Amino acid sequence: MKKFFFLFVFALTAISVSAQREFYELRVYTMKFGSPASGLHNYLEKALLPSLNRQGVKNIGAFEEWSQDNPAKIYLLIPYESMAAYEKVTKAVNSDKVFTENSAEYNTITQDKVPFSRYETSFFNAFSGIPQLIKPETGSMVFEMRTYEGYIEDAYQRKIKMFNEGELQIFKETGLHSVMFGEKIAGPQMPCLTYMLAFKDLAERDANWKKFSDHPEWKRISKLPEYANTVSNIHRVFLKPLKYSQL
C-alpha cells in the first residue's frame, strides 16, 4: 500500500512539473536617432545576458526589426521558470559582482549619448498548450511576432482557448514553428496575447502560412460560433536575431 501511495504521489509530481508554465519578460527598447547603439548592445551582450545565464536563465532572445524605420527598436525576450523565479533572479542579478563590473561602462554613459529614449516591459504567462519556450532550429533568421488584441476579456480568453485546443496543433502540422505563446498579464494593449514564430527565411514563412490558411481543420474551427469576434486587432513585426541572441 505504501509503495502504491509513493508511486501515486510521484506520478502527480511528474505531471505537475511537466505542466509548469514559464513566465516571460519582453523588453522593447526605443532607440534614439543619432545616438550610438553600441553602449546598449555591449551591456546586453557582456553584462546582462551572461548574468542571467549564471542564474540559470537560458535561451534569451535578442532581436532587431527587419525594417529600417526610425526610431529603431531592440527586443529582448527573457524566459523564466515562473513569476517567483523572475523575482529571485532579478535580486540575484542586482547583487552579482561580475554583472556590476561588466555594467560599469554602460552606467557611465552620459545623458547626451544614451542609446535609447525608454524601454517598455511586458509580462506573460505561457500558454498551457505550449508551457515552455521552444528553441528554434539553427539558421532561423525570420522571427514573426504577433499580438492579438481582444475587444473584451471574454473574447481574449476564447482566443486563447482556440489556440490551446486547436490552432497550436495546426501550426505544428503546417510548419509554423512556434517559439513562445504568452498571455499578457502586464503591459500595453491589454487584453491581448503575443506569440512568436521562427522561419529560415520569408519564403518558408509565406509558404507555410498558406498551408495553414488552406488546412481543413483551420477552416472548420474558424467558423465555430464560440470563436467568433475573438480578435479585434492584430499587430505584427518581423525580427532578426542579433549576434548575441541565444535563439
UniProtKB/TrEMBL annotation:
Q: Which residues form the NIPSNAP domain?
A: 24-109, 143-246
Q: What InterPro entries does UniProt report for this protein, alphabetically?
A: Dimeric_a/b-barrel, NIPSNAP
UniProt keyword list: Signal
Annotated coiled-coil positions are: none
Q: Where is the signal peptide?
A: 1-19
The source's domain of life comes to Bacteria
Keyword field contains Signal:
yes
Name of the protein in its database record: NIPSNAP family containing protein
